[in-house]
Amino acid sequence: MNHNAPHTPRPLDHLSRTQQRILTTRQLREHGVTASTLAERCRPGGPWQQLLPQVFLLHAGPPTSDERLRAALLYAGCEPGDTGGPGDGEAMVTGLAALALHRFSSVPPLLGIDRIDVLVPRQRRLRDAGDVAIHRAHTLPRPQQVTGLPCAPVPRALADAVADLDDAETVRRLLTEAVRGGHCEAAAVVRELSRARLLSRPHVVDAVDALLAEGRALAEGRLYEMVTCFGLPDPVWHVDLRLPGGPSLGGVDAYWPEHAVALEIDARGPRQDDDALWSQYAQKREHLEGLGITVVHLTPKKLRDALEQQATVVRTALMASTDRTPAAYVVVTPS
Q: What residue numbers bound the domain in which 150 lies?
């Protein structure tokens, strides 16, 4: 036996086709690739290349979009100073790259995105490297698997993307597509923008106003569909209620006078004056119910995800009106 024969790395065939093309220093070492062999293969013009610290591409030429994403995730799963293996897996694609994976038409394809944003726990000691930008969160959202890759949910990915955008039209297109494309509700987007402290930026506030209007319009369309498709009695739409000769009790989206049932869509998102808005809403609801008017409260998410169930809620409220004490007489006027 020739003990001086060079060490031959074990084959990598048992790894997946994608995984075998993107590996960390630790993974390569576990498969018998020595430091000298790695350096030799990654020499200029060699068959391999280093994409990121301790992350290698096992072929020449530019990486594919998938390889860039997997390399970024492997890098984010490693602690600097570690010997180069994936960490605990607490990393996910976010920002524009995640929106591209979620198939946003207003985002360039992955090949046209210069930077890969990755979300990691706040305590992770990482720096930006190569085309990877690190974002941190005190509490990570639950990732969504898209094409086999962990991605931040759309609201969080939007917030991370918007944080680096100063073009008002681009921000408006992204937020509008999130709602119009059915990716999420407006309130969820505004909540993440608020957490990221982006609502102080005028171009973001303008986009949010358009977003909330978009979300309300979609919710109203679903409400009309609910009444029509599930055979509910026709209400009067978008009216103000008031006591005879008295002040306004507030506007509602739909009202069934014969049953004294009012319906409101809550399409608002958290804003800086949210406490005052919620207090005002609660007072209006309490006042109406004190007059014997049943108030049904629906959210855009409920109308999107459980339309039939919401129709049942409204129908139940209408049927129960016969068993209640008659409500006070109110004047109904167009809002």
A: 65-218
Beta strand 144-146 with 149-151 is antiparallel
What is the C-alpha separation between 60 and 79, in angstroms, rounded? Answer: 26
Q: What is the per-residue pLDDT across 129-180, written as a single tens digit (0 to 9) for each?
A: 989 999 999 889 999 999 889 999 999 999 999 999 999 999 999 999 998 8
Does 116 have pLDDT greater than 50? yes
Estimate the crossing angle of helix 154-162 against helix 186-195, to 10 degrees. 50
Residue with tokens 């209408």: 318
Top-confidence range, 1-10, 24-33, 222-231, 266-275: 222-231
**CA distance to 251, 333, 334, 335, per residue, from 247 (Å):** 12, 12, 15, 14
Same-domain pairing of 277 and 137: no
Helix locations, 130-234, DSSP H: 154-162, 168-180, 186-195, 202-229
Tell me the three state secondary structure of residue 76: helix
CA 107 – CA 99 distance, rounded (Å): 7
Query: pLDDT grade, residue 245 (50/70/90)?
Result: confident
In this structure, is residue 4 part of a structural domain?
A: no
Report residue 211: phi and psi, to 5°.
-65, -45
Write down the pTM of the prediction. Answer: 0.73
Closest-CA residue to 192 (of 311, 60, 110, 99): 99
Higher pLDDT residue, 315 or 34? 315
